[in-house]
Amino acid sequence: MDMVARSQVANTLAGQIEEFAEPGAVLNGSIHSKNRNFLGQVRDCLEGIDEELKRNLSFRVSLLEDIGHYAILGQGKRFRPLLFVLSARLCGYQGDDVFRLSTIFEYIHASSLIHDDVLDHAELRRKKASVNRVWGNRTAVLSGDFFFSKALSIAIGSNNLKFLDALIEAGTRMVQGQILELLHTYDWELKFHRFLKFFEPGQPIFSRSRCKSQVVGM
Predict the structure, then answer these.
(1) What is the CATH classification number for the domain harbouring 80?
(2) Residue 126: closest CA among 181, 84, 70, 80
(3) Which own/partner contact pairs does 169-176 have at CB distance under 8 Å and 24+ positions apart?
(4) How far apart are CA 106 and CA 171, in angstroms?
(5) Smallest Cα–Cα separation from 91: which of 182, 213, 174?
(6) For residue 17, what pLDDT is reported?
(7) Tens-place pLDDT, residues 98-138
(8) CA nearest 166: which of 125, 217, 132, 112?
(9) pTM, whole model, 2 decimals?
(10) Domains contained in the chain, number
């Protein structure tokens, strides 16, 4: 399969998985029955991802471990690392580090959610108190920064500059999207087509990044 074909199939895979990742769904029983067959097929991937997340959540500062267990090992679909693992298999990647590398996207996702809750003054996340409500805004911001740094640390261990480039590009565009959103807070005259522009630099690019990391040579 050539590079273009791989990219097309990877993007199709991203769209198919997104159909199973309904808002608010978690893996501990609330997934609708129509999705359970799919989850059964990827159960080994989900277990490998969770094991690697648990292994990586050992830090010198105990407070960061507490926040990590609370925000990362709590309820979650593991959609982002799962997409990475399935993309790796699709592209024939057989490396033993696939689950470790997949946690990069869960760390980045957790970091962005923690920061989002601070910006939005949110008090709930996944039906429980948000990190900023439990530990305060300053601790939440710093822990979000830490988890993003942790993701980059794991990525650097891959020794793959193309992979790093894809991640950094996605992260940069995500932050640009957040800034655009802040600039237009309470802008009631904002047109819908301009509103959609906020999402072009943002998180959807991470789905392409997860797949692209396989296409560029992981």
Answers:
(1) 1.10.600.10
(2) 70
(3) 169/205, 169/209, 170/205, 170/206, 170/208, 170/209, 171/108, 173/200, 173/201, 173/202, 173/205, 174/112, 174/201, 174/202, 174/203, 174/205, 174/206, 176/201, 176/202
(4) 13
(5) 213
(6) 55
(7) 999 999 999 999 999 999 999 999 999 988 999 999 999 99
(8) 217
(9) 0.76
(10) 1
